[in-house]
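Slide 14.
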Amino acid sequence: MDLTLVLVETSNPGNLGAVARVMANFNLSKLVLVNPKCSPKDIDALVRSKHAYQILKKAKIVKNLDDVRADYLIATTAQLGTDYNIPRSPLSPELLTEKIKNKRF
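Slide 15: predicted structure.
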């Protein structure tokens, strides 16, 4: 399975660099930035990325999520759902893996 990590409206270059570093640690290399609020070329992003700066240099930048092509799109957030926005239905990694394997969504 070929994985692409998608970040939406990333605003902190240090966090962007940290994500690239984690991606490299897990042997992932495809990064898509949707409407980023900071540059992957920012010095803070490059410094924080350490050995993973190539991931930042090759990151694809798109205007909106509709421009992302994927068989599956799995979202995570630290934001709690409210009556105003989309309700969130949390899944454990194990349940998500089972659903993907069985193609049950």
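Speaker note: The radius of gyration is 15 Å.
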